[in-house]
Amino acid sequence: MKILAISDKIEERLYSPSAASSFADVDLVLSCGDLPSYYLEYLVSTLNKPLYYVFGNHEPAIGENGERLKEIPGCINLDGRVVNAGGLLIAGLEGSIRYRPDGEYQYTEGEMLWKIVRMVPKLIWNRITRGRYLDILVTHAPPAGIHDAADRCHQGFRQYIWFMERFKPRYLIHGHTHMYTPSQKRQTRYKDTEVINAYGYVVLDVEPAQ
């Protein structure tokens, strides 16, 4: 299965009529946040493929008339959910570490742990019925110490480290960390999980587990 993962930056190659032919072989789109709703809606209508998303820390989404959107039309909000997408088991967690007391889509480590705990029954059910907990975890923020930064806003979650160690997803795909130089790492292996920064976009070939 070919997956287009996107985050944080509008790419001209995607936001153009040629996207339909250039990315015709994509089966699924995963958005890791901080992208405008019109961009995601454009991709859904142009590629005609399912698009799953989590919100970043610079949401909420704004509609055509300036209204705040809690959901993006034509797209599927993954936050706190575990879904089966064409044989791939995918879950999502929105937002970043809390760096403002009143910040929307921002969470403390404890708050993020509680979001994870609420997904555990479905993850265990996957293990019982599918032989594995999860294939892909889609997040906005990265894990602590992997692709994150020293400033509070861009620190990663320690809970994602625990998640990878306990539930062993094949991939954790995130955004939030902008990539400005070729020296910045886009992909890092952590135990059983490939951690991938989807800043801009990246295309992955992921085979559904047997």
Descriptive report:
This protein is of the alpha/beta class and 210 residues long. The chain has 5 helices and 15 strands. Helix content is 21%, strand content 27%. The chain has one domain: Metallo-dependent phosphatases (Purple Acid Phosphatase, chain A, domain 2). The chain has helices at 19-22, 37-47, 109-117, 120-130, 158-167; strands spanning 2-7, 28-31, 51-53, 61-62, 68-69, 76-77, 82-85, 88-93, 96-97, 106-107, 136-139, 171-174, 187-190, 193-197, 200-205. The chain is globular, with a radius of gyration of 16 Å. A 6-stranded mixed β-sheet has the order 7-8-11-12-14-13, with helices on one face. The chain has a 5-stranded mixed β-sheet with strand order 6-3-2-1-15, with helices on one face. The protein has a two-stranded antiparallel ribbon with strand order 4-5.
Features:
210 residues, alpha/beta, Purple Acid Phosphatase, chain A, domain 2, five-stranded mixed β-sheet, 5 helices, 15 strands, 27% strand, globular
Topology diagram in text:
Elements: E1 2-7, H1 19-22, E2 28-31, H2 37-47, E3 51-53, E4 61-62, E5 68-69, E6 76-77, E7 82-85, E8 88-93, E9 96-97, E10 106-107, H3 109-117, H4 120-130, E11 136-139, H5 158-167, E12 171-174, E13 187-190, E14 193-197, E15 200-205
Parallel strand pairs: 1-2, 2-3, 3-6, 8-11, 9-10, 11-12, 12-14
Antiparallel strand pairs: 1-15, 4-5, 7-8, 13-14
Number of domains: 1
How many helices? The count is 5
User: What is the CATH class designation?
Assistant: Alpha Beta
Structural class: alpha/beta
CATH superfamily: Metallo-dependent phosphatases
Distance between the termini: 13 Å
Low-confidence parts: none
Could you say which overall geometry the principal axes of the C-alpha atoms support? globular
Which H/E pattern describes the elements? Answer: EHEHEEEEEEEEHHEHEEEE
Cα-based radius of gyration, to the nearest Å: 16 Å
Strand count: 15
How helical, in percent, are the residues?
A: 10-25%
Question: Going across the major beta sheet, what is the strand order?
Answer: 7-8-11-12-14-13
Biggest sheet features? 6 strands, mixed
CATH topology: Purple Acid Phosphatase, chain A, domain 2
Beta strand %: 25-35%
CATH architecture grouping: 4-Layer Sandwich
- Average pLDDT reading: 93
